[in-house]
Structures are given as C-alpha cells and as structure tokens.
Amino acid sequence: MVPPPPPPSPLESDPDEMRRFGYAVIDALVERQRGLRDDVPWRGGSRRDLEPLLREPCPEEPGDPDAALRRALTEILPRAGRIDHPRFFAFVPSSPTWASVMGDLLATGFNVFQGTWLESAGPSQVELVVLEWFREWIGLPEGAGGLFTSGGSAANLGAVVAAREAAGHPERPSVYFSDQSHSSIERACRIAGFRDDALRRIPSDAAYRIDVAALSAAIARDVAQGRTPVLVSANGGATNTGVVDPLPELADVCEQAETWLHVDAAYGGFAALTPRGAATLSGLGRARSVTLDPHKWFFQPYETGCLLVRDPADLQRAFHVLPEYLQDVELGFEHVNFADRGLQLTRAFRALKVWMGLQVHGRRAHADAVDKGIELGDVAEAALRAAPEIEILSPSSLGIVCFRLRPEADGVPWPEERLEALNRGIQDTIVAEGTAMMSSTRLRGRYALRLCILNYRSTAADVRAVVERVVALGRERVGIVEG
Ligand SMILES: Cc1ncc(COP(=O)(O)O)c(C=O)c1O
Q1: Are 376 and 245 members of one domain?
Q2: Is-contact 343 158, C-beta < 8 A?
Q3: Is the model's pTM score more than 0.85?
Q4: Structural domain total, the chain
Q5: Relative to the CA of 247, which of 6, 37, 91, 262 has its CA 20 to 30 Å away?
Q6: Ligand 1 nearest-atom number relative to CA 237
Q7: Spacing, Cα 184 to ligand 1 middle (Å)
Q8: In angstroms, rounded to a whole number, what is the distance separating the alpha carbons of residues 264 and 271?
Q9: Is 184 in contact with 334 (CB distance < 8 Å)?
Q10: From CA 193, how far away is CA 185, in angstroms rounded?
C-alpha cells in the first residue's frame, strides 16, 4: 500500500489563498497611492499611544491573515511619514514608481541570493548591466563598476574601506571632507578604524562649497608631518543645501597628492541625467569612487544604494575573502561575485527594481522627473524671494532651498533666538495642520527652514501653496508678536 503523503508544512500556503491574500495586499497598495494626495504628508505617534496598541505577546498559534493585514493598514502603517506624498519636502523625499515596487516584490518573491554568480547568474548579469548604465550617465570611464548597496551610508563605507586598503592601510592616515558632508562619511571613517585625530573637517566657503585652498593646505601639512592622506570625500549635492563641491579642482588636488577622490553623490548624482544637473556635477567622472542612491532621486523603493569605483579591483582587494565552504563559487573574475565587492554575503536582488522601472518608463521619463525637481527648487526660491521678509539662506540647488523669515523691528533684525522660535513655530504649524512635511537644519549656526523637492508627483502649485502658507503664518505671527 502506498503511504499517504505527509501533511504539508504549516508554513506552506495554498495557491488559491496565496492569490487571494496577494491581491488584497496589492489592492491596499493601489488604494494608498490613489488616495495619497488627499492624505496628510506625515502622521506620527507617541510611544505612550503606540505601546498599548501594539505591545502584545507573540502569537503562538496561526491567525487570520485578513485581520493581520487590517491591523497593518490601520494601526501601523498610517502612523508614519508618507515620504512619497507630493507635499513631503522634509529631509530627503523618495517617490518610487509602481514598476520598481513590483520589481522589488518580484525579487523578494523569487528569493534571489545575489551574493555569488553561481546562485544568481541572470540577476548578477542584470546588476552589471544597470551599473554600466549608471557608469555612463555619470561619466566614469569604461571598466568602472561596483555594486548595489542598502543605501548611501553603506556605499560611503565601502568607498572609505576601499580607499584605506588602496593606500596600504597606513599607520597614520588622514581623511578629508567638508563641514557640509553627510554624517555617514564620518561614521564610515569611524567604522573603518580612523580615530578622530585622522579626520579633517575642511571649512566650506560662503556658498557652502569646500574651501579647496584650505584642503590643499591641510593635505600639505599632514604630508609634512608624516601622515598619509587616504581619501578626500566631496559632495555631489550636499544634504543641507544641494550644493556641489568644485569637483574639477578637487580632482586636480587629489591627482597631485595621489589621493583617492570619493564623491558622495547619494543626494545629487542622478541630476547628471539632465543637462543643467550635468553642468553642476561637471568633474564627477574624474572621481575614483562615487556613491549614488537610487532610493532618493531615482524613484526606487528603499533600500537601493550604489557604489561605483573606477577600478572594481579596489573593492575586491578590500572585501574579498574566500572561505572553504564557498570554494564552489569562484568562477573567475568575469563572473562577478558581488559578495566580494562589499559587506554583504547574502544580498537582495536590488538591481531588478531599477531595471524594471527603466524597462517600463524608460530613461528619459526618469531624467525629466529629475529635471522637474531642479525646476521646482527654482520655483520655490522665486516664490520665497517675492516675500520681502524672507531671507534666502542657500539658493535653490538640485531641488533644495533653505530660508527663514527674518522680520525687522524698526529696521533692526530680530535677535537669533527670537528668529529661531518664530521659524520653528511656523514649521511646527505647517506640519501639524498637514499642509506639508517640512524639516529644518542649521547653516552657519542659523536655524533654517529647508524644502527638498524630488517627488515626480509634486507640482509648482504644491510648492507655491506651501511657500504662501509659510509667509501667511509668518505675517500672522509677526503681527501678533509686534501688535
Ligand atoms: C549626501 C548624502 N550622503 C549619504 C546619505 C546616506 O544615505 P542613506 O540614508 O541611503 O544611507 C545621505 C542621506 O540623506 C545623503 O544625503
């Protein structure tokens, strides 16, 4: 007698149920996107509210998938920023296309292990192809390559480690970056083992670009004292201001000092797809490594970062380790094992979402959407300049503009603390009433409101409405205070 088949694992799902549940999730995602413009751009929640709602013992027994989905949709997911809302102008927005979200889902569903060619030949080839597109767009020479990473921070870490190894892991290294560089550079240096005394924060000039003369002087001083300059990290769109460092001059300095030039273009790199962005980023292709972050301005879901290096062998040198249990995966240099180029052995197939977005919408639509972001930054600046009580703290650059209300009393500007309280109050109101999500920063110690406009759904009307509201609130408050 044939024994009955063993019962399926309780972790198995029935195909009909998979479809039903899967479609319910897709429906929820589509409804969310359809309602996005009418939703608030941000909603938070205090720990005090969320603890009783979500704290619970882990379920021991199976539960109802529809109930779990309902809870996710009502109790969890709405209490967060809608980073892709057309009026989310805080921090760095992100607005993935549906095609790339589906690419991500597909990669997850196929459970691709993108660490070695042996386990993912087709996906590895696609990663090579997409990286090659990026390489061409930013003007790195043929032969440059790299890998997709979880984000810009991981890419910057990869560059710092690769530069350290290329310099021979010196005893007394020094690393240079501007006072406008993203915190992930300093963090990467720390992880890579550089002590504080090896880090050189070079001042930026009045336009927030690194002071090249100060950099050259710092390098010369360090060399004279027996230090080895390991890396200069330049901004290809600083997070605060969108400003790009003078890349050609930095390339000259690095060439002369035989030092690795890294460009952190996590924020602004994809502006190279547009003529005016390419002009702003001129010199990018002379870098030895470049960080890009497609989950910022290339319409990809999180986590999609990227590191490109002029010579991928620099990454191999820094990251390749071959344990005996992976002896089967070495198929030769041509068959790239992406695990040998970075931190992760187990890696998701991130290139698929980018590839899918480009297959569906094409490069030009992506480039046009990036250009629109640059344009909307200019629209914001023009609208702000129309109000005499607004002070522009950094003009529109790659979709970012920083400003503040700066009223005067009898021709004398308010003191800084009072200005900060006024601007902070306006920002709080804009966010609380749901007009927009905005965030602030500090420029030369001054509290600055900051608009960052990268979403392909945002319009000039969105931008003008937010500026008008900021100005109206300012006038209301100044009137109240003064009155
Ligand atoms: C210039 C720059 N570099 C690096 C990062 C870090 O990128 P990620 O958040 O993807 O790790 C950011 C994030 O905003 C950034 O703006």
Answers
A1: no
A2: yes
A3: yes
A4: 3
A5: 91
A6: 1
A7: 7
A8: 13
A9: no
A10: 13
